[in-house]
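seq:
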Amino acid sequence: MRYQLAETDRKTLLREARTYKDLSEVVTREFRGQKAWILFWEDYRVDFARFSENKILWPENQPADKKFFQEARIFNEQTEVYIRNENREILTGRILKEEAESSSQKETIYSMTAEHFMWGTQFRNGFVQEERGMRYHLPGIENPEGRAWGYQIIQYYVPDPEDGMLLLADYRLAGLFRISEQGKQILD
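struct:
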């Protein structure tokens, strides 16, 4: 089987590992002056928070509790930081950040955006929910009417040096969207 590479933007993908003391340090260090979504897992809940205007908007004003915190994915269009709580004292993170093509780049990176739908079509009392009881917050969203909600993933591919086939190198969350009467709208 043969594949032909499509014309696409060449990008540099920065990948780093870092440590942080808490989620506030992550967002202020990596996303200062930007907006970002925070998808976080605790022992008893999974939910979204929002970083905007250099502050975190927590669902129902309940911040993630370090005692119960497991992991988080903090993301926007250009960057994702994936955080794990290793020992309840320190957070370790992997950063994926897209940058313009660099002349010192080692290999060509190709990207593709995929969209996936989330459960829930009703927005009530700050929650997106569905009939079977699953629900989650989308803090800071105005005019929440939507028929469907979803998220975008950017997948990064590198050509195999032997045969040129594209191999999945990495992926990251890149954004949330809603489908309404007006069509698809990116939630920034």
